[in-house]
Design brief:
The complex is a heterodimer of chains A (383) and B (324). Chain A is of the alpha/beta class. Helix content of chain A is 39%, strand content 16%. Chain A has helices at 22-33, 70-73, 89-100, 111-116, 121-127, 143-167, 177-184, 186-195, 230-239, 254-259, 261-273, 277-286, 297-301, 304-308, 350-357, 362-370, and strands spanning 14-17, 37-42, 79-83, 104-107, 132-136, 171-175, 210-215, 222-227, 290-293, 312-317, 321-326, 330-332. In chain A, helix 1 crosses helix 6 (143-167) and helix 6 (143-167) crosses helix 7. In chain A, 53% of the residues are buried. A six-stranded parallel sheet of chain B has the order 3-2-1-4-5-6. A two-stranded antiparallel ribbon of chain B has the order 7-8. In chain B, helix 1 crosses helix 7. Classes of the chains: A alpha/beta (383), B alpha/beta (324). At the A-B interface, helix 1, helix 2, helix 6, strand 6 and helix 7 of A face helix 2, helix 5, helix 6, helix 7 and strand 6 of B.
Chain lengths: 383, 324
């Protein structure tokens, strides 16, 4: 069979996650999911940028509403959570001590600001020459851009780890969300640079295939279909019951169908409108046609295929309540990836990290607590 | 990033790229798989793209084309998705093809493939066969729905996967109906996730000498997006109706092409200089760079098969037999 079970691939790698934006935190979570020990480092005022305190309340039966915040939870799985105030010298000293025992540091703070605070890459590399510092530059890139840069952060960190095996030293790596969004759209970039053309979208249509989204019987029920070639077309015509219009010569070729796509769309929509969505999809699939339902979040959550593959991970913990979290888009046959830890709440692992990892004594721990570095409750908002 | 510049003080003589030394056999076609292998190639891995003889990767024949003239080496998507790779041809369905493929696997750290589930096994090149000759090899399989589950063998397209993964926006009964992201964008995102997992397994294999088989599902890559993660966490906290928490319609899912900035260029033998999107990250010490254009069909047959010990006569014989 596939061989003995293996530990998670990044076991033994320690990552400091100072990400403030979701992309950096999500990229760090990808490393955590792969088995790295990721320490989420936050200021003690926690979710200062998180908006009204009302958004912090938990309705899932869990406790500690003041220590959790849902957008944070979305990217805090499998991480340890600690607090420190980097604006104070003692806090920056804590960061240096963390860096001394870390492999990777992920930040999305302006590198110039970190330099001014004396914790830029050059200063930290003196503490630990093996440090890999991945900096995500700020961006207003929309949804896919954030995903692209999260993956790019994880790729960059791992690539630098691979290089470190050879060179013995770490390095500074910068990830640009905008550049990575462009990277996803490489064909459009080449169309621009080679042909001087800006690709234009027309809803769900595609340059090379015939496809669309069609309304079905009922309220807000839709299906999508893609017809790539003559065989798909024959399947579609069969599923539709070989109506007379579809057999006309002008629809017999890819060229003809493209030319008359508006009419094809109307004909398909007339057929779907009169039918139950799932029944229509079953017929199309039986004919070998690529077709599927437009699923909302509830439907995705209940999808039997995703459930059978174990896509959703059950998160449970003292504060997390119990909920199914979306998992990873990959399964390792030999090194199963799991939700080892529920989303870390604010400062949840302060004691473990300060005392055990950094060897901070009880007296210093109390002092750091008094100075506002260490906290497990978010300070209430005054404004 | 554009121009490949870095803000940290780069060494006077930059070292080789970060993934220098990583050997990848790329059996993928279309978009998601080739994009995953391209990221490794851009990172500096030596990626050998294997295509079937004569027709090659079907993506070669999918537009848009340079100057709108269709040709095997003019497809812009193909050129983008296969930059930095070496290219060979091989018919995996023949006995000689399988033997040569196994020789190539022996010399690889990573194999990436995107055939429908079960296809590689039919070629006699499933994970167990690869592992028997190369215990440290990482096999990454990228498919629409994954290697298991009730949808495993369904036909799919990028649009179908986006719809089923909850990644279509605006499905609120508006006249125009739900819309997907720009073409190829979702598939590229899945390819990116596949590259992340692959590199993790490759790092582990370099450490303990044991490979793994990674099953990547494009549907799950889309269902696992950051937007959806945020929506699900909000749902758990609000205890409310999940379908009311659909991510807001993004203002624009399209990159702003008007502000491309300086892009790295590679010289293509037929098309001249082509400007590409830059590497996924700027490495101060070991810069990633675009080094070579996407290969022409079988361009590196002599080089790669020569490394396996085949001489010019062997290569001619294999070509005449339709194996390469």
């Amino acid at each position: 069979m596939t061989g003995v079970r293996l530990p998670p691939p990044l076991e033994g790698v320690r990552v400091l996650d100072l990400g403030r934006e979701p992309a950096a935190a999500f990229g760090s979570q990808m490393l955590a999911d792969l088995g790295a020990e990721v320490i989420r480092v936050q200021p003690a005022d926690g979710f200062a940028d998180a908006g009204p305190a009302a958004a912090l309340s938990a309705g899932d039966g869990g406790e500690g509403a003041g220590r959790r915040f849902s957008p944070f939870d979305a990217t805090a799985r499998n991480k340890l959570g600690i607090t420190v105030d980097l604006l104070q010298p003692a806090g920056r000293d804590v960061l240096r001590r963390l860096v001394a025992v870390a492999d990777v540091l992920v930040t999305d703070i302006d590198p110039a600001t970190m330099d001014e605070l004396g914790v830029g890459y050059d200063a930290l590399a003196e503490v630990n020459p093996g440090l890999i510092h991945v900096v995500s530059t700020p961006s207003r890139a929309p949804g896919p851009g954030r995903d692209a840069s999260a993956s790019a952060i994880a790729l960059a960190a791992q690539s630098a780890l691979y290089a470190r095996e050879r060179t013995g030293v770490g390095q500074y790596v910068e990830v640009s969300p905008t550049a990575n969004l462009l990277g996803l759209a490489g064909t459009a970039v080449l169309d621009r640079t080679v042909n001087g053309r800006v690709e234009r979208r027309t809803a769900n249509r595609d340059l090379t295939v015939l496809q669309g989204c069609y309304p079905c019987a009922g309220d807000d029920r839709w299906l999508v279909v893609t017809i790539a070639d003559d065989r798909d077309w024959a399947g579609l015509v069969g599923a539709l019951g070989e109506p007379g219009w579809a057999l006309e010569p002008r629809f017999a070729t890819v060229h003809g169908r493209r030319r008359h796509q508006d009419e094809v769309d109307e004909r398909i929509a007339a057929w779907t409108r009169a039918r139950d969505r799932d029944d229509a999809i079953a017929r199309l699939r039986a004919a070998g046609v690529a077709a599927g339902p437009v699923q909302d979040d509830a439907a995705v959550h209940a999808d039997p295929h995703l459930a059978q593959r174990g896509f959703f991970l059950e998160l449970a913990g003292a504060d997390a309540g119990g909920r199914a979290d979306q998992g990873m888009p990959y399964r390792f046959a030999r090194a199963p990836l799991t939700a080892r830890l529920p989303p870390a709440r604010l400062g949840e692992h302060n004691r473990e990290v300060y005392r055990e990892l950094l060897g901070v004594g009880e007296e210093e721990y109390r002092r750091l607590e008094a100075e506002g570095h260490i906290a497990t409750e978010r300070a209430p908002r005054t404004s | 990033m554009p121009g490949g510049e870095t803000t940290a003080d780069a060494p006077a003589v930059p070292g080789p790229p970060p993934l220098d030394g990583l050997r990848v056999l790329d059996l993928t076609q279309h978009v998601a798989g080739p994009f995953a292998a391209k990221l490794l190639a851009v990172g500096g891995a030596r990626v050998i793209k294997l295509e079937r003889p004569r027709s090659g990767d079907p993506m070669r024949w999918i537009g848009p084309f340079a100057a709108d003239l269709p040709g095997a080496d003019r497809g812009l998507a193909f050129l983008d998705l296969n930059v930095n790779k070496l290219g060979i041809t091989l018919d995996l369905a023949t006995a000689s093809g399988r033997e040569l493929a196994l020789e190539l696997v022996r010399r690889s750290d990573v194999v990436v493939e995107s055939y429908r589930p079960g296809t590689l096994e039919r070629f006699g090149l499933g994970y167990d066969a690869l592992r028997a000759i190369a215990p440290a090899v990482v096999l990454t399989s990228i498919t629409s729905f994954g290697q298991t589950g009730p949808y495993r063998d369904l036909a799919a397209s990028e649009l179908v996967l986006a719809a089923m993964a909850g990644a279509m926006r605006g499905g609120d009964g508006r006249l125009a109906g739900p819309a997907s992201a720009a073409p190829r964008l979702s598939l590229a995102l899945a390819g990116q996730a596949a590259a992340v997992a692959t590199l993790g397994a490759a790092l582990a294999a370099a450490r303990h000498g044991e490979g793994d088989w990674i099953d990547v599902s494009i549907m799950e890559a889309l269902a696992g997006s950051l937007d959806r993660a945020t929506a699900l966490a909000a749902y758990a906290h609000a205890g409310g109706e999940l379908d009311r928490l659909r991510p807001p319609l993004a203002a624009a899912d399209e990159p702003e092409l008007a502000e491309l900035g300086p892009l790295p260029e590679v010289e293509h033998p037929l098309l001249g200089l082509i400007a590409h999107p830059g590497p996924f990250a700027a490495f101060a010490r070991t810069p990633a760079a675009l080094r070579r254009p996407a290969p022409m069909l079988g361009e590196h047959n002599a080089l790669v098969y020569g490394e396996l010990g085949l001489d010019a006569g062997d290569i001619v014989a294999l070509a005449s037999g339709g194996v390469i």
